[in-house]
């Protein structure tokens, strides 16, 4: 796979934004450290910038030419940082304000996909301002008896739960309200989970995840060595091509650009794929999925980082 990169000098002085104060701070610090190390080893004039410890306006004093965003979650992946950088007239990697904001919001993502007939699981929405626990029985029936509860604007599976009863649903919703005033209630799809990275408009090979956990949660992603990753994922050539096209279309539908990742479930009965969510600043740690997919396509970690940085040149 051929990705566009530039000579190290062409990027100029680069700030890698990481850390921040979202619930995903620890993952962001690890992603940022890995990316920064790769840039320095490649000869790029790069330095780290923790937005929880420094004011964004200090980037002007640092005379940066561009920014590589490694901030996961709110404040870095939701459009707010992108808007601030645009006001400062500093080029940055990945999606713009609109794409970042839409992809960060699981509810709005699903509504857009639904309008475009892009397959996504059935869902309901719980709003903190008007949630009634008495509605949980009807919701469970409507969504098939097994439901995933997700804060609308969190990542890394933070605040998520799988429930199988109305009582569990009410408790999980209240727990999710600790992270967000809007909570997505999604029909649980029985079958394998896949993820597809999109870099510079190209879909990388899909990855299938397998975990002994109830679902692919925070621990399975970042802490547990029992999680297995399959790339190639075991799909037929036809299904692999279909999934790649579907994820590229879903990513573009949210006005997402540059690079990112789309998560998908496959119904084990019908074989149909259902979109879960898109990520515009996915993890880049040693356990992260985008580097695994890049390696399967013959792209090294350093090449991948340079290609991501190149998205700031557009």
From TrEMBL:
<keyword id="KW-0133">Cell shape</keyword>
<comment type="similarity">
    <text>Belongs to the D-alanine--D-alanine ligase family.</text>
</comment>
<keyword id="KW-0961">Cell wall biogenesis/degradation</keyword>
<feature type="binding site">
    <location>
        <position position="277"/>
    </location>
    <ligand>
        <name>Mg(2+) 2</name>
    </ligand>
</feature>
<dbReference type="GO" id="GO:0008360">
    <property type="term" value="P:regulation of cell shape"/>
</dbReference>
<keyword id="KW-0067">ATP-binding</keyword>
<dbReference type="GO" id="GO:0005524">
    <property type="term" value="F:ATP binding"/>
</dbReference>
<comment type="pathway">
    <text>Cell wall biogenesis; peptidoglycan biosynthesis.</text>
</comment>
<dbReference type="InterPro" id="IPR011127">
    <property type="entry name" value="Dala_Dala_lig_N"/>
</dbReference>
<keyword id="KW-0460">Magnesium</keyword>
<protein>
    <recommendedName>
        <fullName>D-alanine--D-alanine ligase</fullName>
        <ecNumber>6.3.2.4</ecNumber>
    </recommendedName>
</protein>
<dbReference type="GO" id="GO:0005829">
    <property type="term" value="C:cytosol"/>
</dbReference>
<feature type="active site">
    <location>
        <position position="156"/>
    </location>
</feature>
<feature type="binding site">
    <location>
        <position position="279"/>
    </location>
    <ligand>
        <name>Mg(2+) 2</name>
    </ligand>
</feature>
<dbReference type="Pfam" id="PF01820">
    <property type="entry name" value="Dala_Dala_lig_N"/>
</dbReference>
<keyword id="KW-0547">Nucleotide-binding</keyword>
<keyword id="KW-0573">Peptidoglycan synthesis</keyword>
<keyword id="KW-0963">Cytoplasm</keyword>
<dbReference type="InterPro" id="IPR011095">
    <property type="entry name" value="Dala_Dala_lig_C"/>
</dbReference>
<dbReference type="GO" id="GO:0046872">
    <property type="term" value="F:metal ion binding"/>
</dbReference>
<dbReference type="Pfam" id="PF07478">
    <property type="entry name" value="Dala_Dala_lig_C"/>
</dbReference>
<keyword id="KW-0464">Manganese</keyword>
<comment type="function">
    <text>Cell wall formation.</text>
</comment>
<dbReference type="InterPro" id="IPR011761">
    <property type="entry name" value="ATP-grasp"/>
</dbReference>
<dbReference type="InterPro" id="IPR000291">
    <property type="entry name" value="D-Ala_lig_Van_CS"/>
</dbReference>
<dbReference type="InterPro" id="IPR013815">
    <property type="entry name" value="ATP_grasp_subdomain_1"/>
</dbReference>
<feature type="domain" description="ATP-grasp">
    <location>
        <begin position="110"/>
        <end position="310"/>
    </location>
</feature>
<dbReference type="GO" id="GO:0009252">
    <property type="term" value="P:peptidoglycan biosynthetic process"/>
</dbReference>
<dbReference type="InterPro" id="IPR016185">
    <property type="entry name" value="PreATP-grasp_dom_sf"/>
</dbReference>
<keyword id="KW-0436">Ligase</keyword>
<dbReference type="InterPro" id="IPR005905">
    <property type="entry name" value="D_ala_D_ala"/>
</dbReference>
<feature type="binding site">
    <location>
        <position position="263"/>
    </location>
    <ligand>
        <name>Mg(2+) 1</name>
    </ligand>
</feature>
<dbReference type="GO" id="GO:0008716">
    <property type="term" value="F:D-alanine-D-alanine ligase activity"/>
</dbReference>
<feature type="active site">
    <location>
        <position position="24"/>
    </location>
</feature>
<dbReference type="GO" id="GO:0071555">
    <property type="term" value="P:cell wall organization"/>
</dbReference>
<keyword id="KW-0479">Metal-binding</keyword>
<feature type="binding site">
    <location>
        <position position="277"/>
    </location>
    <ligand>
        <name>Mg(2+) 1</name>
    </ligand>
</feature>
<feature type="active site">
    <location>
        <position position="288"/>
    </location>
</feature>
